[in-house]
Write a structure and sequence with these properties.
- The structure is a single chain.
- By secondary structure, the protein is of the alpha+beta class.
- It folds into two domains: about 1-45, YefM-like fold, CATH 3.40.1620.10; about 45-85.
- The protein contains four helices and three strands; from the N terminus they run βααββαα.
- The chain has helices spanning about 10-15, 15-25, 45-70, 75-85, and strands at about 5-10, 30-35, 35-40.
- It has a three-stranded mixed β-sheet.
- A hairpin with a 2-residue loop joins strand 2 and strand 3 (about 35-40).
- The longest helix is centred in the C-terminal third of the chain and has 25 residues, at about 45-70.
- The termini are far apart.
- It comes from Sandaracinobacteroides saxicola.
- This is Antitoxin.
- Antitoxin component of a type II toxin-antitoxin (TA) system.
């Protein structure tokens, strides 16, 4: 539930260790508010690393699609022969 993942910055300051422990256990991001407005999202390191890996793979896919659209392709046999050299 999203509402349980929202905390004011004052609570983050006062109870950081507990909140960090909860982040690591639940692996759910925490939305930090300031003056009632969402200002930041805090997440555990494993989730952040997984997100970065996913973004890198998506970028590679997008670059591959751009190459295909631009005609920068070659038959598999040619690519394999080039790699073998």
């Amino acid at each position: 539930m999203l509402s349980s993942q929202v905390t004011p910055i004052s609570r983050l300051k006062a109870d950081a260790a507990t909140l960090l422990k909860r982040l690591a256990e639940d692996r759910e991001p925490l939305i930090v508010t300031q003056n009632g407005e969402a200002r930041a999202v805090v997440q555990d390191i494993r989730s952040w690393e997984e997100t970065q890996e996913t973004l890198a793979l998506l970028k590679l896919l997008a670059l591959g699609e751009q190459d295909i659209e631009a005609g920068r392709t070659q038959p598999l046999a040619e690519a394999l022969a080039e790699l073998a050299r």
